[in-house]
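Protein modeling request. Please complete all fields; requests missing the sequence field cannot be processed.
Requester role: graduate student
Desired output: 3D structure, token encoding
Chains: 1
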Amino acid sequence: MREELVRRHRRVSVVRLRIGIVLVAVVMSFFGARLFQLQGIDPGSYASMSRERGLETEILPARRGAILDRNGAPLAESVDGLMVVADPLETKPHAPTIARMVASSLDVDYFEVLGRLQREDTRFQYIARRVPAAIAERVVEEVAEAGYKGLSTRRDPVRTYPAKDVAANLLGFTGAEGQAMGGLELAFDTHLDGVDGKATYEVGSGGARLPLGDNSIEQPRDGKDLELTIDSDVQWYVQRVLRQTVEQSGGESGAAVALDVRTGQVLALADHPTFDANAPLLSPEADLGSRALSDVYEPGSVQKVLTAAALLDAGKVTPQTKITVPGELPRADRVINDYWQHDRLRLTFAGVLAKSSNIGTVLAADELSSAELRDYLARFGLGSRTGVGVGGEARGLLPKAERWRPINHDTISFGQGVSVNVLQMAAAVNTIANDGVYISPSVIRGSAVDENGNHVGTDNARSTRVISEEAARATAEMMETVTRAEGGTAPQAAIEGYRVAGKTGTAQRVDAECACYRGFTVSFAGFAPADDPRFVVYVVVQDPSNGGGGGSVGGPAFRQITSFLLRKYAVPPTGARPSRLPLEW
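Delivered output (585 residues):
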């Protein structure tokens, strides 16, 4: 009996073993088939799907290049800020409330934030970029204190303008998301802007990073710095003098330029009204650009120095040429007058410029044909952009000579019927100061490529001889008579101890609304020392309400700015005797 039981037990064990072996074989066959499918049939797609389900990507922000003045002082720079980021796995349950808290504290759209907080395919979403650290940390803390999880911060550089309004109209600014919004920031965005990197890492089912998982990093590429010719100290001072000048004269706006004569480098390019580049939306849109580059106006009598230089270069006159100037001059269907009433005057050509006589200028300009005069003005740069690389620069207007009627020849000779921008006219006057050689002005030191693909900067400045050295020096000597106390129109522009060359300008102002003349543009352009020029300064004020002209409004501003430059750069007086050209005969 016992032996029978043992035999039955053995048969049952054998059967169980066989069944187990069969089951193991079936299971192993299944795994083998699955392994074959994964490794043999479509290994790439399955591996990719596995990785995608467990990969997260994090932005590594690049730093935007700084904009520096000629001495390396930052005018625009990127400082440490933070981005606010979210883990949607944790924020989704309370997304509406968190979105409302974030939108009320940051400049972000509620519905866009809500969508990011509710994403199901990722555990990383950025909510706001380039947020000042204190603000970003406060928002995250407030959400956490309310009992909600999932918000945190990461490093993200913020654009700032340390000097606030200094050169703001030239620099432009950036938006909340770091996008360039005008000025040099926009014109050289490709140069300044970096390329964000990214970190990709593998996470487990709970969202924790796997130490031995698939991890890769693409390092960010920071933007390149942009160095300007601007001297921030000079820029600050010029802006303050310009503001005072515009406000005291009751003007609508103003602009001023300071140039290094020998290089054409712009030391200051100022506008008023201006704005704080850190908070541009607090200022009217009309004040955010550079009027010195974008606005055009008729230069008035400052252009007489270009007409005079052309006549001297062509050998048509000398500073001592005698001109009889009547009280009024009938021309075609018009009558040309001077700004002051007078009987017949006997002036030298130097006297015509010193007293800014329209009539005397027209009579002298008769010696040049319209084609000849226009050619000279074009060579001085009128009708063409300076090409400094800032977007929105106006070309101005210099009509083709074949379209000139006799009256156009007359009015253009003394600065009406032609339009310029401030930098354009300053560069033209600089040609006279630079012994007759035009140098294209530069605001960029070295070389950079602007938004239109043009290579600009001091390395690319072009120079062209416009008039002879003798004609330039004769013109400069005539311009000295303008600042003389006896007979000149701008003794307020004189600087004690220095020889100063200058020219006043007062022109009727075109009003686009009525397509007529309404108001005036007053200006003063000059350089010092007159016999060895170092700096050109040009000041323009639109529509002053105090009745002042180029001499009384622009002259004092010129004197202040030029005096500052001479002191700062330690330029001594030449010691030469000033011009004593006769004004009458």
